[in-house]
């Protein structure tokens, strides 16, 4: 039976699997305005490195994806995509197709034991908690409740991100935080933390509690960046700020530090928004 290939990298006993959720143009501003300090020569280098990230009209074209880490001790998901048709990421190409990508990778949502949310922007939490269309036997009709899409997973968010939720998106208290608390699936982290495979690294700046994930074995590692970098221009030139970073100086420091400390060995960058799910550290 032919099955669409699911992009994956093996690191030691873990498999890092890219899970597509959608693709579309960046709707807010031109890419030049999004990275105001980038030069034409730098954009030319980016267009050689990631030619799929610009469309015929010169607009920034993004992918939206999550990653799974599948190993002998369980399955961790990193980020939860743009979400279903009624998700809050109305600017993104909804509905996302993460459920189909999970199925293609042979992952049942009930098998996922950990969900790392890199940050609380709407294009990274879409499938975290979804509307529950439960059919009741009492004839009351469909429930309007919300429930975690990954019923057996612990959801990991940085305390600093949790503390900033009212600034980031106050609606998330009701649509994300409360349901995860009600099901006792929310765990707040303070800084770096080990995972069953790999580790969470605090990388603040894009948002106050942004976090990334590193999976390493021997000389080889995969860095799942979240929005530590959102376009290849920040991989080629990590000092370049993105206008939607909440603290640009802290974001730059986080990016340079992580790319430098992990960059000594063979490093694969697994990003949310670049055209290719895995790119070698340039
Ligand atoms: Zn994003």
Automatic annotation (TrEMBL):
The residue ranges of the Metallo-beta-lactamase domain are 63-273
Its keywords, alphabetically, are: Hydrolase, Metal-binding, Zinc
- Signal peptide (UniProt feature, chain positions): none
Cite the Pfam families for this sequence.
Lactamase_B
The answer to whether keyword Nucleotide-binding applies is: no
Q: Which domain of life is it from?
A: Bacteria
Recorded GO MF terms:
hydrolase activity; metal ion binding
Spell out the SMART domains in the cross-references.
Lactamase_B
Spell out the family assignment given in the record's similarity comment. Belongs to the metallo-beta-lactamase superfamily.
Official protein name in the record: MBL fold metallo-hydrolase
The organism of origin for this protein: Glycomyces luteolus
């Amino acid at each position: 039976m032919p099955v669409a290939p699911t992009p994956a990298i093996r690191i030691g006993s873990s498999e890092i699997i890219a899970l597509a959720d959608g693709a579309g143009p960046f709707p807010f501003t031109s890419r030049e305005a999004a990275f105001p300090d980038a030069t034409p020569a730098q954009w030319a280098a980016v267009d050689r490195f990631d030619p799929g990230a610009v469309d015929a009209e010169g607009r920034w074209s993004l992918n939206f994806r999550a990653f799974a880490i599948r190993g002998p001790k369980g399955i961790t998901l990193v980020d939860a995509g743009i979400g279903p048709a009624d998700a809050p990421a109305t600017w993104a190409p909804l509905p996302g197709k993460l459920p189909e990508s999970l199925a293609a990778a042979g992952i049942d949502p009930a098998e996922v034991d950990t969900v790392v949310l890199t940050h609380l922007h709407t294009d990274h939490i879409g499938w975290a908690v979804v509307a529950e269309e439960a059919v009741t036997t009492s004839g009351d009709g469909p429930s309007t409740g919300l429930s975690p899409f990954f019923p057996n997973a612990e959801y990991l968010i940085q305390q600093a991100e949790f503390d900033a939720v009212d600034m980031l998106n106050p609606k998330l208290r009701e649509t994300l935080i409360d349901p995860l608390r009600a099901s006792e699936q929310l765990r707040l982290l303070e800084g770096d933390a080990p995972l069953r495979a790999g580790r969470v690294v605090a990388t603040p700046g894009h948002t106050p509690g942004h976090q990334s994930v590193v999976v390493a074995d021997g000389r080889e590692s995969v860095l799942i960046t979240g929005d530590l970098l959102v376009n290849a221009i920040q991989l080629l030139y990590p000092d370049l700020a993105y206008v939607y970073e909440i603290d640009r100086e802290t974001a730059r420091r986080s990016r340079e530090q992580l790319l430098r400390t992990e960059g000594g060995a063979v490093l694969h960058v697994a990003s949310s928004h670049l055209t290719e799910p895995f790119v070698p550290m340039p």
